[in-house]
């Protein structure tokens, strides 16, 4: 079995609910336990067919491969939020079940780090200390050089030019990925922290604006603004803030901070849903391809979402509530 979305419990209650916490609220020991579990996943063998995915040389790379494979259907559309909710859950579960991690998936509370005097490179996430998520990049290759994930050859897939996205949109493209997408190309983990983009897109004012959006369509549009908009939105701003591999739409899960970032994306959606659960818990808006290119049907609650070899398919409906379906968690 290559992985399944399964419930942690037959019934989700306050007593058995997993609590996800903000990175800086964890103790040093808890932060190290998380980064050690991610390193463990990077050292476990891949479960994918190496003839089809030669770059997937470890278990962590399996998640990157899945993200590459579905990039054109899991961004800037209605699938984005439920698919990434499940993706983070699958990663969290792999850390727990395959690497003995006893904690939960932490999140990156963007505005707490995005003040006018904030510097990401000095934050608890990126300062390169033993209990961080590794340092900023350095040198011509922007290689993470200090702390966790600073060892060489941590990434196994090549970078994707952003023009693949823009060309696909402009040319009403097929939404297919290049033939070289899964080639093996080992190198360091790359980062280029961008404080300016982070302060512009992820401050408290932006978050308040995001959570004040009246409909799911407006929430999605503010969270991830369309291609060509100079305002990235909080989702795009977080990726731009990471820079390097984290800014590459296709291979962004290469940077383990991706999962802290997307836990925060999920947290924002969960909070927004909680403001009017009767009308928002199962609210959908949009189609099933990136900016509806090529044109695709509107997503429904009964449509099947695929995760490839990471998990069995799930209906959209099963992924809309963090205390139902396969999920049982909340955010602190």
Automatic annotation (TrEMBL):
<keyword id="KW-0560">Oxidoreductase</keyword>
<feature type="domain" description="Tyrosinase copper-binding">
    <location>
        <begin position="75"/>
        <end position="92"/>
    </location>
</feature>
<protein>
    <submittedName>
        <fullName>Tyrosinase central domain protein</fullName>
    </submittedName>
</protein>
<keyword id="KW-0479">Metal-binding</keyword>
<dbReference type="InterPro" id="IPR050316">
    <property type="entry name" value="Tyrosinase/Hemocyanin"/>
</dbReference>
<keyword id="KW-0186">Copper</keyword>
<dbReference type="InterPro" id="IPR002227">
    <property type="entry name" value="Tyrosinase_Cu-bd"/>
</dbReference>
<dbReference type="Pfam" id="PF00264">
    <property type="entry name" value="Tyrosinase"/>
</dbReference>
<dbReference type="InterPro" id="IPR008922">
    <property type="entry name" value="Di-copper_centre_dom_sf"/>
</dbReference>
<feature type="domain" description="Tyrosinase copper-binding">
    <location>
        <begin position="255"/>
        <end position="266"/>
    </location>
</feature>
